[in-house]
Amino acid sequence: MHSSVFRVPRSALAPVPQDLAEIYRTTYRALVRFLYRKVWDAERAEDLAQEAFARAVVHKPDNARGWLFIVAANMARDDARRAARERRHLTLLKAEPQASEPAAADDALHAESERTHVRAALEQLTPRDREVLLLWDSGLSYEEIAAQTGLARGAIGTTLARARRRLVEVYEAGQRGEHVARG
Amino acid sequence: MSHVDDGMLHAYLDGELAPADARGVDAHVAQCPDCRRRLDEERALIARAAELLALATPPDRQVPPFRAGDLKAPTRVWWRVRLPLAWAATVALALGIGSYLGREATLGGQAEMATDSEAARVRSLARRESRPEARGTVRTPPAAASAPAAVSPAPGRARADNIARPRPEPVESKPEGERPRELAAKIAAHKAASDERDAWQKANVISLDSARHVLGGDPVVVPGVPVEALYLGRGVGYSAVVIVQQALDSSTMIEVINARPASLQLDQVVVSGAPAAVADSVSAAESRELVPKSAPRPLRAAVQASPTLFRDVRGPLSPDSLAALRRRLQPLRPATGP
Fold first, then answer.
1. Most-buried pick from A137, A160, B170, B314 (CB within 10 A)?
2. Which CATH number characterizes residue A59's domain?
3. Residue of chain B whose Cα is closest to the Cα of A2
4. Which of A149, A153, A159, A170 to probe the B interface (max B CBs under 10 A)?
5. ipTM field
6. pLDDT tens digits, residue range B139-151?
7. Final residue belonging to a domain, choices A23, A54, A84
């Protein structure tokens, strides 16, 4: 009786299949980056990536790589929903001084402000386009992106073309707008 | 071959075109200056987009080593999965301790020698019983909720202990002899502690509206009895719990429990719907990210119909009276509301 009760958690501690360890080695950074572009908090992104891998250890999914990104996307969404309000507030607070005194911007501030601009541009994409772009940038193939997003494989190229164009356009427009406002 | 569209160009530049298609693009671009120019533009666009994305990158930190022991499996998953097993185990355990105590009583002081190790064993069993994963043991499985009279799987005893919580704890069996009594007291203490945790946890007071929202319908109450307060509760294995406190008279409070069972399916527990809904990440993202994600659809449907809600009444009353109250439960209507 007891052995049956306690059998399940032990399997969670069973040796990790070699391929999952390999996937971890090759995918962890990409997953963190993917998550970061959703939650915009490096530590949180790392936590969520760890959590996703922890779930993969338990779940042992067949296509672990794709699975990890699905899980990560879901977790990031839940996380965003919970913290959306505060974070938006914080971002506003952070963004303001940079906009008002760009001359004082050192390298870190500059990077921070560019990050903010890219983030703003990304947010102008439709969710579908953004997702496809982020997945591509995470190293997934068209095949994997199609499987994960439910899009036809043939539509990925078109979606990526649109997403990239929009990202660059919105970003450049933002830069121009800022120069105009400053000058 | 006609001109190459943007999607084709990007797939080509991403190296994701099938070899035959890629050769087709090569051939066309070779004899079409327009497409050659576009190819260069798209190549620059792709590079620029990648560049911008690279700006939105977290600081590069050491990849933590990957060892299974480092990763904490989400524990809640396990007790949910194990709930039915744990329930069975606890019933068996209770019976075992009961019969053990009985034997102990008859053996009396003569068992003195064995008792120390035995006591240790029973203590460890009792401890195990109070472990979090063994919680929820006294609770009725949702299926039985429709037959309110047959509520408790371990009839009377376990539930009565729960109910009698405000009063002095009734020790479940009172064996003779000094040693067993001490043992029994210890077990009772353990049991009281674990009952405390087993019991539905009351959190904050909520309004009737939020109770409706949480349950997806009216909470049930004993009609004609003044409602003192509604509490948001927690219960292991239940996704939503509302506890309605009613005053039978000035000194007798009863609590009506309305609980919505949580899904016990592993995939829904671990990742809300991920493996099943492949397109989830996109379709959900499209629903604007802030729309509360529904529970798995079948569950939501069940909530609307609401007969699957688990209902119970507890209070310092006899099991018969409680059963009678259970039969009288009615949805709380605004007219009779607080």
1. A160
2. 1.10.1740
3. B89
4. A149
5. 0.73
6. 444 444 444 444 4
7. A84
